[in-house]
């Protein structure tokens, strides 16, 4: 492909799955350099919940840019920062009965996870982090240590200590409550599992294959964290900001995490911004103990504030996400039952996974979908799950067109793979 090949390191990945030059975008449509229209069901891995270049959010940042207001100020106070904090407090936290301190970290999700783990270890004086099979928390060393995927772990080049993996909800089949297993191991002084500083969990595992934890399981895990003195951390980087229909993905289970990690769609515009929400009694940091140059970039805070004001002041947006999510789920279930008995559909809200069981089928499906004008990505330990993360603002017609492309591509993929004698 023009320019990137040979210039950019071989480490590039998405430009391989989606070989085109993308020049402009609006909402759920991306234009390639050659003027091709692509439907986007990937949304920047969940960083574009409000669509590309959402014009209502764009107005706020163009005005801000034009006024020569502070863009970079390290973590110094600015009107943009104060407005974000006040807006998030009043619109998001207060109505939900939540109270947190805010910590802006470096702009990646991984850096926010590092901060959360550091804080949990500092507060408890313990080292062990309990994380879960198929969990994904980012690719810096502390975060990889808590990430299941062998592909990412083995390239780190050092040992990755400090985490104990427990089976996620459903990992051992529908008959086994894995929370009971976690409790049993923590109660047993002979289990070999050190007392945890934290339990780190996603309510729906995004990279891990759209694995959905139940309300009861999440409540048990929260109770176990409390019982054993561990900090309960929800990684809401991908599933937060409305992806599962409510602002936080844990609201449906009425959880009250000690620490919540947000990033990806937090800025509302695809600008980098990451943050921890910390219960006040756990805010044990000394000034500057976790620092970074780009903590709470003002432009990203302005777009984040605009997104919250625009979409979260009433419950209508949540209801729309739920309605569209149900449509999407029903349609995918119909496609699954029509075209084979091996397919499974999972998810919550507008985070859905179509499990092809076979990597080859999933690969051929997303490749053919791209050729037909749909950007859709895969996840799961073997990349066997087609992952649907359309913008939460997508209109019904575009959603439908994308689904038609997906169905055609799946049919062709099944034929292609059968033809190879698999
Ligand atoms: C993307 C992601 C991360 C890592 O965020 P980066 O910005 O890529 O470092 C961590 N946890 C979850 C659940 C994610 O989806």
Automatic annotation (TrEMBL):
<dbReference type="GO" id="GO:0045303">
    <property type="term" value="F:diaminobutyrate-2-oxoglutarate transaminase activity"/>
</dbReference>
<dbReference type="InterPro" id="IPR015421">
    <property type="entry name" value="PyrdxlP-dep_Trfase_major"/>
</dbReference>
<dbReference type="GO" id="GO:0019491">
    <property type="term" value="P:ectoine biosynthetic process"/>
</dbReference>
<dbReference type="Pfam" id="PF00202">
    <property type="entry name" value="Aminotran_3"/>
</dbReference>
<comment type="pathway">
    <text>Amine and polyamine biosynthesis; ectoine biosynthesis; L-ectoine from L-aspartate 4-semialdehyde: step 1/3.</text>
</comment>
<dbReference type="GO" id="GO:0030170">
    <property type="term" value="F:pyridoxal phosphate binding"/>
</dbReference>
<keyword id="KW-0663">Pyridoxal phosphate</keyword>
<keyword id="KW-0032">Aminotransferase</keyword>
<dbReference type="GO" id="GO:0047307">
    <property type="term" value="F:diaminobutyrate-pyruvate transaminase activity"/>
</dbReference>
<protein>
    <recommendedName>
        <fullName>Diaminobutyrate--2-oxoglutarate transaminase</fullName>
        <ecNumber>2.6.1.76</ecNumber>
    </recommendedName>
</protein>
<comment type="similarity">
    <text>Belongs to the class-III pyridoxal-phosphate-dependent aminotransferase family.</text>
</comment>
<dbReference type="InterPro" id="IPR049704">
    <property type="entry name" value="Aminotrans_3_PPA_site"/>
</dbReference>
<keyword id="KW-0808">Transferase</keyword>
<dbReference type="InterPro" id="IPR004637">
    <property type="entry name" value="Dat"/>
</dbReference>
<dbReference type="InterPro" id="IPR015424">
    <property type="entry name" value="PyrdxlP-dep_Trfase"/>
</dbReference>
<dbReference type="InterPro" id="IPR015422">
    <property type="entry name" value="PyrdxlP-dep_Trfase_small"/>
</dbReference>
<dbReference type="InterPro" id="IPR005814">
    <property type="entry name" value="Aminotrans_3"/>
</dbReference>
<dbReference type="InterPro" id="IPR012773">
    <property type="entry name" value="Ectoine_EctB"/>
</dbReference>
């Amino acid at each position: 492909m023009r320019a990137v090949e040979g210039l950019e390191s071989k480490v590039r990945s998405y430009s391989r799955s989606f070989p085109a030059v993308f020049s402009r975008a609006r909402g759920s449509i991306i234009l390639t350099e050659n003027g091709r229209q692509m439907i986007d069901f990937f949304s920047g891995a969940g960083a574009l919940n409000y669509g590309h270049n959402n014009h209502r959010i764009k107005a706020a940042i163009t005005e801000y840019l034009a006024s020569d207001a502070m863009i970079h100020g390290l973590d110094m106070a600015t009107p943009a920062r104060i407005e974000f904090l006040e807006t998030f407090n009043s619109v998001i936290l207060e109505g939900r009965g939540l109270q947190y301190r805010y910590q802006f970290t470096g702009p990646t999700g991984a850096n926010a996870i590092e901060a959360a783990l550091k804080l949990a270890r500092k507060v408890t004086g313990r080292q062990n982090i309990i994380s879960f099979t198929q969990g994904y928390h980012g690719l810096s060393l502390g975060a990889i240590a808590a990430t299941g995927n062998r592909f990412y772990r083995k390239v780190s080049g050092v040992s990755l200590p400090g985490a104990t993996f427990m089976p996620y909800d459903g990992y051992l089949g529908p008959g086994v409550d894995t929370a009971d297993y976690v409790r049993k191991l923590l109660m047993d002084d002979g289990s070999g599992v050190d007392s945890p500083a934290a339990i780190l969990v996603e309510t729906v595992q995004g990279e891990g294959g759209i694995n959905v934890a139940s309300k009861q399981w999440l409540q048990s895990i929260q109770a176990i964290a409390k019982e054993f003195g561990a900090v309960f951390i929800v990684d809401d980087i991908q599933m937060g900001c409305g992806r599962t229909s409510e602002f936080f993905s844990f609201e449906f289970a009425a959880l009250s995490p000690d620490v919540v990690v947000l990033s990806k769609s937090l800025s509302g515009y695809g600008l980098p911004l990451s943050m921890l929400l910390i219960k006040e009694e756990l805010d044990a940091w000394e000034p500057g103990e976790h620092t970074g140059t780009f903590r709470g970039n003002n432009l990203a805070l302005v777009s984040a504030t605009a997104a919250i004001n625009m979409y979260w002041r009433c419950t209508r947006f949540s209801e729309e996400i739920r309605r569209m999510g149900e449509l999407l789920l029903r349609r995918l279930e119909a496609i699954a039952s029509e075209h084979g008995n091996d397919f499974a559909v999972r998810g919550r809200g507008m985070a859905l996974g179509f499990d092809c069981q076979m990597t080859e089928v999933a690969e051929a499906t997303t490749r053919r979908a791209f050729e037909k004008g749909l950007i859709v990505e895969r996840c799961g330990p073997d990349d066997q799950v087609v992952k649907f993360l359309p913008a939460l603002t997508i209109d019904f017609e575009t959603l439908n067109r994308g689904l038609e492309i997906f169905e055609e591509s799946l049919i062709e993929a099944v034929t292609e793979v059968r033809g190879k004698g698999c």
